[in-house]
Here is the input.
Amino acid sequence: MDYEARAKRIALLILDVDGVLTNAQLVFDSQGEVMKVFHTQDGLGITAAHKAGLKTAIITGRETEMVRRRGLELKIGDVYQGAMDKVQAFQELLAKYRLLPEQVAYVGDDLNDLAVLTQVGLACAVANAVPDVKERVHFITTREGGRGAVREVIELILKSQGKWEAVVEAYMLPGKQEAQQ
Here is the structure.
C-alpha cells in the first residue's frame, strides 16, 4: 500500500518534538532551561489540521516548559512529556480516541521513535532522520525537522483525504483566518 492510500485513513497525527518540531538542537539559557525554536509553517499546519478534523498529539522523551506552552498555543489535544515508553503513550491515545493503529500517523527522526513508527498506519520520517529510521517508514519528508516537515506531512494527509482545498479556501475568507502559528 502506498503512503497516499495510508494517509487517507489517518484520524490522529502524533509528533515527536526534538528533531521533528524543532531542528534537534538544544540551547540552554543561563538558568539551565531548554530553549527550542519552532517553525511557524508547522504551527499553521497544525491549526489547519484541527480545522479539517484531524486530531494531534505530542509524545516526547524530554520534559520542558517550551513544549507545554507550544502545545497549549496550538491547542494540541494530548502532550506526553517525559515519555520514556512512547508505546505506552501511543496505546493510551488509541484507547482514548477508539482508533486502530492504521488510523494513526507518527512523525519521528531517531531510534527512540522506532517502537511507535513500526506500529502506525502512516510512519513518517523527517528528511534529516537517522538512516535506521528512514529505512523503516512509509514516507520521508523533503523538509528537515524544525523546518516545515510537519506541515509537509499534514498537507499530505489532508490532500489525500480531499480536505486541503477547503482549508485553503477558508483562509481566503475575510476575518476567518486563525493566526496561531
